[in-house]
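Methods — Computational structure assignment.
A single polypeptide chain was analysed. Its primary sequence is given first, followed by the predicted tertiary structure written as structure tokens.
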Amino acid sequence: MTDTKKRALLQAAALAAAVAGLAACSKQETPAPAPAPAPAAAQAPAPAPAPQKLKVAFAYVGPVGDGGWTFAHDNARKAVQQEFGDKIETSFVEKVPESADAERVMRDMVAQGNKLIFGTTFGYMEPMLKVAADHKDVKFEHATGYKTAENLRTYDSRTYEGAYMAGVIAGSMTKTNTLGVVGSVPIPEVVRNINSFTLGAQSVNPKVKTRVVWVGDWFNPPKETEAATSLINGGADVLMQNTDSSAVLQTAEKMGKRAFGWDSDMSSYGPKAHLGSAIINWTPYYKKAIGDALNNTWSTGQSWWGVKEGAIDFVSVAADVPDAAKQQLEKVKAGLKDGTLQIWKGPIADNSGKEILAKDAVADDKFLGGINFYVKGVEGKVPGGEKK
């Protein structure tokens, strides 16, 4: 074979090899098919969002302490927190003045996300109306007030029923036939309680008379002490109060006289002086109000609850109270519960002798809400004042 032919054959072989190499380089791998998506039913469902808690705030006029008006409200707050558990979140601000500060505090409560706000004293009425008008998505509840709005309603307790029951015991226990009352501010609520206390005492002891000293404040232990001392020095041997501290009972204890707890059980403050405590239980109403908000059944209106609804009671009666007085107390409780006893039933006269309620006439709530006179047996005149 000639060199020329050999070269031709080698060139042909090299060309064939090059073509084969190019063919191999141009070949692509087919990727494996992606797995089919799982059926929708097999996929894990997204977790449901946690239900949002109802935030509930309380504005208190006094310190919580361990007795009295604010203490009773805070006991109820704790009770509803336990009742509703993680459905609600409660908070409170104590010692909120009945002034422009109340509006500031409530606006702050709204800013913190509270959707139900309780104002627990009469002096919050105008501030609450202002804040409610600006926040229609928030519900407001005002204790002892009388003005409402589409998102503000009022509630109260018939404290005069507790005062009447205290009077039954006072009239049975007094030796001087002179009772004393330390009053906060002279408004219908407080005047009604003084009168009811006197009517209760007169129901068992017609000789009773009642003296009143006003302190012009809801919580002022020094003034309350001074007023109680003055009443005792003036001949009163059994005292009641419409103030928020335990100072009156403690003063009676020190001076060897008798007295009552008010708004909560105060027996521990003066065990020897204590004759019993007229208490308020706000829990039933707070359960209803919060339940209404949670169930979207809340609506404006007015409520006034007493013994019948479980809001008022008289507890911790002293051991030395005569059995006859204790039995009469139980009859009064039963009558208030079933509606057969009407405290404000005529004939009733004021302390000038003028007939206020005719024989067998029964006062309605409008009449009770506007009482501005003393009944027969209460000394002095009602001064002006503001309502709680």
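Note: DSSP finds eleven helices and 14 strands in the chain.
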